[in-house]
Amino acid sequence: MRFLLNILWAIFGGGIVLALEYVLAGLVLCITIVGIPFGMQCFKMAGLALFPFGKDFDDGGRVGLGGGILNLVWFLFGGLWIFLTHMAAALPLALSIIGIPFAIQHVKLAMLALFPFGVRVREKP
To answer: Residue 5: which of 86, 112, 102 has the closest Cα?
Structure first.
């Protein structure tokens, strides 16, 4: 079932477009040395955005001072806007019964978009 939902998500839920946007942003950020940590987070989010069903994430226990500072910079310069975009996409999907699973995935991506440093993406059992 996860496989089918991931395929439907990639085609109809915007997964391919989201993943390409995150990869492009990651490549642009990785051009500079300062942007590499932010680019790596974009690549992590691209993988989750392409096939989100069957994956979950957790904070890994602690972020640390460096991760906290990077999360703050991320939030101020892009995280809030990415969060709002995912929530705007989730709202109309949640209003239709067939779109509820896709809305849940957008909310999951929105939560990750706020503070991605220190978060581990893992497969659900």
So the answer is: 102
Question: Does residue 125 sit within a domain?
Answer: no
For residue range 2-15, list pLDDT tens digits in order. Answer: 899 999 988 888 88
Residue 31 lies in a domain: yes
124, part of any domain: no
CA 26 to the chain's CA centroid: 12
Domains of the chain: total: 1
What is the pTM for the complete model shown? Answer: 0.84
